[in-house]
TrEMBL record:
Keywords: Signal. Residues 149-167 have a biased composition (Polar residues). This is Uncharacterized protein. It comes from the Eukaryota. Residues 1-23 form the signal peptide. It comes from Zasmidium cellare ATCC 36951. Residues 149-179 are annotated as: Disordered.
């Protein structure tokens, strides 16, 4: 018959093992991807020029979203870089993003081992034209930023526009203001 000390030692080992397994499960769900190139796109430089997207993730084939978890903003990337319809948290824009579209430059970068996301600026009309493209260039940071995969739904969200034909470009709605 085992001694009470060996029973207690075994129980502590089981509890410790369960804690490690639980911690590993949490860690596996929440991951960060470092140095992700961020660019922006909209109606005038989508291919073809439109608000049309590649994947229907439950809200039709039109880009959009406010950036909340329940209404994430569309992002484009290379197939296989993220899971189709995957929602990520992007600290640079302080928005939740959903993979609903593809991006040629993202595919080229992914083939060279570089993560790249292209974020929908928000205007679903042709009226933005060159002003919208100029805004996208202004919003694009000069270095990569971290994104969070499989994170929680409790991040502070900035639902402010990135671009609007009526109010123009909003670099104040990216963090840390393009740096």
């Amino acid at each position: 018959m085992p001694s009470s000390t060996s029973i207690i030692t075994a129980a502590v080992a089981i509890v410790a093992s369960a804690g490690v397994a639980q911690g590993a499960a949490v860690e596996k769900r929440y991951t960060t991807v470092q140095n992700v190139q961020h660019t922006f796109y909209g109606y005038p430089d989508n291919s073809p020029p439109s608000a049309q997207i590649a994947y229907d993730c439950g809200r039709g084939y039109s880009a959009g979203g406010k950036g909340t978890y329940d209404d994430p903003r569309t992002f484009a990337t290379a197939p296989g870089e993220f899971n189709k319809c995957e929602i990520i948290w992007d600290p640079y824009t302080e928005k939740y993003l959903i993979f609903e579209d593809t991006c040629d430059q993202c595919e080229s970068d992914w083939n060279n081992g570089q993560y790249h996301i292209d974020i929908w600026t928000g205007s679903s009309s042709q009226s933005g034209g060159q002003a919208q493209i100029n805004c996208e260039d202004q919003l694009t940071p000069d270095r990569g930023h971290t994104v969070v995969r499989n994170g929680n739904q409790n991040h502070n969200v900035n639902t402010g526009p990135l671009y609007s034909p009526s109010s123009g470009c909003h670099p104040e709605n990216v963090f840390p203001n393009n740096n």
